[in-house]
Amino acid sequence: MLTNKIPRIPDSEITPENLYMDRRRFIQLASGLSVATAVSGIAEATSSRFDTNEKQTPYKDVTSYNNFYEFGIDKSDPARTAKNLKTQPWTISVEGLVKRPQVYALEDLLKGLTIEDRIYRMRCVEGWSMVIPWQGFQFGELIRRLEPTSQAKFVEFQTPLAPDQFPEQRRRVLDWPYVEGLRLDEAMNPLTILAVGLYGKPLPNQNGAPVRLVTPWKYGFKGIKSIAKIRFVDRQPVTAWMKQAPNEYGFYANVNPAVDHPRWSQATERRIGEFFKRKTLPFNGYADHVASMYACMDLRKDF
Q1: When comparing pLDDT for 302 and 223, which is higher?
Q2: N or C end of the chain: which has fewer CB within 10 A?
Q3: Quick one: 78 exposed, middle or buried, by C-beta within 10 A (0-12, 13-18, 19+)?
Q4: How does pLDDT run across 243-261, given as a tens digit for each residue?
Q5: Interior CA angle at 259 toward 175 and 276, to 5°?
Q6: What are the residues facing 121 on neighbouring strands?
Q7: Domain architecture of the chain: domains with CATH
């Protein structure tokens, strides 16, 4: 009897079972089959034309080296202190110059949007960087659904003001709640996403669960975490770090290596896990997609 021989697939090309199960678990969560992320009606993630092919930062580093000041000022604090954050149920208040203002349950706000895989270079203002595989939604798709009015020029974001959930809000590290913002065209840029997962898993608390902003051409502090409020406004928001140190953290905190931070150079960065530094690229390497939005601006002055 003749039999067809099935070629053996090299072990290196087989997805480990634990990663496969994690991936399937995320898709199930994101499809509303579990209340863990409360995001329903989503198809399996699709790859992005914006992906980088650079080596990805290990999951352990991505989830243990974080800026999340509500949970501590040291990079290791959030992974230790964010465990008690309650992310379900979760609501987001949409306010301001928009035709569909409402307090939305997260699953209702994101229902029907297309989730995508986005492998992005991410850079923090202190000079370290990562490559993270995110799962999220184009923010512009949600904005079109919410229908901002013609007067809306900016989008303001806030985290919850909840000292019982965010221990550092009991101290005056910043003027709480945390506030960030984007110009409307920045928010509509296809690179801008609302992330609900990384590495095929739901966002850990320390990374901004259940939903956070990701703008890969901007410094890390622009990526507000655990979003509870989205406001459409006609004036530039005053963000948390602009209040704290206006000479260091401007609204247009783009990755512009020609502008040094007052206390360190922005010309180079160190990728987590690497010894040698590398040259910092304008707009973190995404200039082809975003530079046109700043063509008439002096990014030395408007930082």
Answers
A1: 223
A2: N
A3: buried
A4: 999 888 889 988 788 888 8
A5: 100
A6: 131
A7: 41-243 (3.90.420.10)
